């Protein structure tokens, strides 16, 4: 019997957008039930990188381009594009360095950009703003296990929400957007009131160790990045998923029956 073709690993990016008002919260969106990955789950805004995210022309439309490693630029562009598409928030500044607070043009263009990612740069140009790569701090990097039907190499970023933009779900990939305390999201997941897949749950736990948005960013900057590639192991008759013990999450042995990957 021929060996099965290996599942391709798709590059992806996601954003933990945090704020302190009224309390320390993170923005999460609920995936549409018809989406083929993590359908119905509560997740951080994000998705796969697109060819246009690799366009070198972004150099003229991005703050922090020269200071950002070349291999990181497409992931950060993708993260900023995805949070705009899924939650309607554009992390950008104008030529004077003032945070973009949203307008009708940005609101009306979401559907166009979602259908054609190549329209993201023209929108940024039309708005006269620059997407801000410096607002993103690496939080974690996870690669989906090799036994799953879909695999992603996902960079998680944390960013502080300090503009007046409202989070509004897109209605096709996401059906709800909510600001929620990390501990509360975990409580709802444990109570069965929310579906939260394993990587999201682990990063919520890590985020919950912080006391504020600034603390979350400071902790992320201080951590040594260890790529997480979960592995399945046996403990007697039980199968568990384990992750590197030095990745910052502590010792993790997750029963396979609880995994939603």
Written account of the structure:
By secondary structure, the chain is of the alpha+beta class. The protein has one domain (9-230): Nucleoside Triphosphate Pyrophosphohydrolase, CATH 3.90.79. It contains seven helices and 13 strands. Strands 1, 2, 3, 4, 8, 9 and 10 form a seven-stranded mixed sheet that branches. The chain has a three-stranded mixed sheet with strand order 5-7-6. A hairpin with a 7-residue loop joins β8 (137-143) and β9 (151-160). α5 packs across α6. The chain starts with 8 loop residues before the first strand and ends in a 6-residue tail after the last strand.
Helix-strand pattern: EEEEEHEHHHEEEEHHHEEE
Kindly name the structural category.
alpha+beta
Count of spatially separate domains? 1
| Main CATH class | Alpha Beta
Question: CATH topology, what is it called?
Answer: Nucleoside Triphosphate Pyrophosphohydrolase
User: In CATH, what is the homologous superfamily?
Assistant: Nucleoside Triphosphate Pyrophosphohydrolase
Oligomer: single chain
What ranges have pLDDT less than 50 throughout 5 or more consecutive residues? Answer: 32-39
Question: Rg from C-alpha positions?
Answer: 18 Å
CATH architecture field: Alpha-Beta Complex
Shape: globular
Alpha plus pi helix count: 7
Query: What separation lies between the terminal Cα atoms?
Result: 27 Å
Helix content: 10-25%
Number of strands: 13
Q: Approximately what portion of the residues adopt beta-strand conformation?
A: 25-35%
Average pLDDT confidence is 90
Report the biggest beta sheet as strand number plus sense, adding barrel if it closes. 7 strands, mixed
């Amino acid at each position: 019997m021929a060996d099965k073709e290996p599942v391709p690993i798709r590059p992806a990016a996601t954003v933990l957008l945090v704020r302190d008002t009224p309390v320390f919260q993170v923005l999460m969106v609920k995936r549409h039930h018809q989406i083929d990955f993590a359908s119905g789950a509560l997740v951080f805004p994000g998705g796969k990188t697109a060819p246009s995210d690799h366009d070198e022309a972004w150099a003229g439309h991005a703050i922090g381009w020269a200071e950002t490693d070349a291999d990181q630029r497409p992931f950060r562009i993708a993260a900023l594009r995805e949070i705009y598409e899924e939650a309607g928030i554009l992390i950008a500044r104008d030529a004077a360095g003032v945070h973009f607070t949203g307008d009708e043009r940005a609101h009306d263009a979401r559907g166009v950009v979602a259908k054609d990612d190549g329209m993201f740069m023209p929108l940024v140009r039309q708005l006269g703003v620059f997407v801000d790569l410096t607002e993103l701090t690496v939080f974690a990097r996870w690669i989906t296990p090799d036994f799953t039907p879909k695999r992603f190499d996902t960079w998680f970023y944390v960013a502080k929400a300090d503009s007046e933009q409202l989070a509004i779900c897109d209605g096709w990939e996401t059906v709800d957007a909510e600001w929620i305390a990390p501990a509360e999201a975990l409580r709802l997941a444990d109570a069965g009131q929310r579906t939260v897949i394993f990587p999201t749950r682990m990063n919520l736990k890590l985020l919950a160790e912080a006391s504020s948005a600034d603390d979350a960013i400071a902790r992320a900057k201080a951590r040594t990045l260890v790529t997480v590639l979960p592995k399945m192991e046996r403990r007697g008759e039980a199968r568990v998923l384990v992750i590197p013990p030095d990745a910052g999450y502590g010792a993790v042995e997750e029963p396979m029956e609880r995994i939603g990957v």
